[in-house]
Amino acid sequence: QRRVHGTTINIPLPCSLFLKAIHLTPSQYQEVIKDNKLYSRKKTLTLAADIDVARALQTISQLLRVKLVEMVDSNSTACLYGQSSQGHHVCVQVKALAEWEINVEVRTSDDLLSTSLLKEVQDEFKTDTKLVTQESSEDFIS
Predict the structure, then answer these.
(1) Residue 41 near residue 118, CB atoms below 8 Å
(2) Which of 43, 59, 68, 134 has the fewest CB atoms within 10 Å, counting from its CB?
(3) Is 14 helix (H, G, I), strand (E, B) or coil?
(4) Which one, of 126, 132, 110, 124, lies nearest residue 62 by Cα?
């Protein structure tokens, strides 16, 4: 917030603005998941009829500034990674549940960052579904 001539001006900046896509191998990605205390936020999104899972994945990758690490589970699950300017890990898993439905899980080493990034994804897809939260450091790739 800033006051200019008696008027308060708010310029919201998305947390994703401070992320950078980082290349990791699948084994490095697994080490990040295993060796760090990560906060998890999950959301199931129903996609609009004109958005398929591949396009949704591309949108999430660009929006959150994360890089694809690997596709698993017969290419139904994408694992992505990035890092904040403060060095927080950002692990994202996008899983196709149905033709027009995906589950997005954001895990970061900062609780507020996880919440904020998932909110950005939710706002991008304009859904109204229940947010599931949990703290976890367990491996989330089956």
Answers:
(1) yes
(2) 134
(3) coil
(4) 124
Of 10, 30, 18, nearest to 117 by C-alpha is 18
The DSSP call for residue 5 is T
Cα–Cα distance for residue pair 73/76, rounded to 1 Å? 5
Alpha-carbon distance of 46 to 126, in angstroms, equals 9
- Distance between CA 37 and CA 48 in Å, rounded? 34
Structure tokens at 41: 């936020």
Return the number of other C-beta atoms located less than 10 Å from residue 141's C-beta: 16
Q: What is the pLDDT of residues 9-67, one digit of tens each?
A: 888 899 999 999 999 999 999 999 999 999 999 999 988 888 888 999 999 999 999 99
Question: Whole-model pTM?
Answer: 0.82
Neighbours of 5 (CB within 10 A): 5
Q: What is the pLDDT of residues 80-125, one digit of tens each?
A: 999 999 999 999 999 999 888 999 999 999 999 999 999 999 999 8
What is the predicted pLDDT for the residue at 49?
A: 83
Contact between residue 24 and residue 69 where contact means Cβ atoms under 8 Å apart: yes
Q: Token match 């694992």: residue?
A: 79
